[in-house]
């Protein structure tokens, strides 16, 4: 069997959108209701996607706003990004777009592996970003899109699986060579 691949992923977005909650739900399978702003936390988890094992290093970053300086470190050895907004906050939806612009600016890339995530779907009454709006933005970005609830463990695993697939897709030919099995 092919050896596990090491992949580093950064979870980014505005404050309090649920970056830590999504990460902790994914890694530990639990939801913590209290709010404790993150400076930076790193988690590890091994997952299997399409028969291949991945050792994921997940960086749960500090909440950003439109004025934050994008931390240079997150452009260096990060393979992909989970960009999270809350479906209950238009501001967070705007911030996620600013973060992507900065990311593309700093990396000089036309595209980087991203999954766009609208979190807190369980807060039905507070929703201000319709699903179609998020979907439309992801189509514009040509990236996968998911709506999730870290609280209800809805679509949490698939967010990270989709990102892995997107990383592999964008790595294209080079990666395929590495995976190549001679029968
Ligand atoms: N109802 C609901 N609440 C959520 C969900 N995800 C997170 N929360 C709550 O939202 C608040 C912020 O969650 P965090 O996971 O700390 O958010 P964060 O984006 O990591 O915050 P910063 O570290 O400050 O950037 C907490 O009170 C969570 O319990 C969700 O899916 N549904």
Written overview of the protein:
It is a lipid-anchor. Its main location: endoplasmic reticulum. The chain is α/β, with parallel strands linked by helices. β5 (114-119), α4 (131-141) and β6 (145-147) form a beta-alpha-beta unit. Helices cover 37% and strands 25% of the residues. Strands 2-3-1-4-5-6 form a 6-stranded mixed β-sheet, with helices on both faces. The protein contains 5 helices and 6 strands; from the N terminus they run βαββαβαβαβα. It is globular, with a radius of gyration of 16 Å. Guanosine-5'-triphosphate is lined by residues 15-21, 33, 35, 37-38, 62-63, 119-120, 122-123, 149-151.
Write out key terms for the chains shown:
37% helix, alpha/beta, 183 residues, 6-stranded mixed beta sheet, binds guanosine-5'-triphosphate, 5 helices
Q: Strand portion, in percent? A: 15-25%
Q: What ligands does this structure carry?
A: guanosine-5'-triphosphate
Could you spell the SSE succession in H and E letters? EHEEHEHEHEH
Question: How many beta-strand segments?
Answer: 6
| Unreliable spans | 173-183
| Strands side by side in the biggest sheet | 2-3-1-4-5-6
Q: Tell the overall outline.
A: globular
Distance between the termini: 13 Å
Mean pLDDT: 92
InterPro entries: P-loop_NTPase, Small_GTP-bd, Small_GTPase, Small_GTPase_Ras-type
Membrane topology: Lipid-anchor
Catalytic activity: GTP + H2O = GDP + phosphate + H(+)
Function: Small GTPase that acts as an allosteric activator of the canonical mTORC1 complex, an evolutionarily conserved central nutrient sensor that stimulates anabolic reactions and macromolecule biosynthesis to promote cellular biomass generation and growth.
């Amino acid at each position: 069997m092919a050896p596990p691949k090491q992949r580093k992923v950064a979870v980014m977005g505005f404050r309090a959108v649920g970056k830590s909650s999504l990460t902790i739900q994914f890694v530990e399978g639990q939801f913590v209701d209290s709010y404790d702003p993150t400076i930076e936390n790193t988690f590890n988890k091994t997952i299997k996607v399409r028969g291949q094992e991945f050792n994921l290093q997940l960086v749960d970053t500090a909440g950003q706003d439109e004025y934050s300086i994008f931390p240079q470190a997150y452009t260096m050895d990060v393979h992909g990004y989970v960009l999270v907004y809350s479906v209950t906050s238009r501001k967070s939806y705007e911030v996620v777009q600013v973060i992507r612009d900065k990311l593309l600016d700093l990396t000089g890339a036309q595209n980087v592996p991203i999954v766009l995530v609208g979190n807190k779907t369980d807060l039905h009454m507070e929703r201000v970003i319709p699903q179609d709006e998020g979907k439309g933005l992801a189509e514009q970005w040509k990236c996968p899109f998911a709506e999730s609830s870290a609280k209800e463990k809805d679509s949490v695993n698939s967010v990270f699986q989709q990102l892995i697939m997107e990383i592999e897709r964008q790595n294209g030919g080079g990666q395929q060579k590495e995976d190549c099995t001679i029968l």
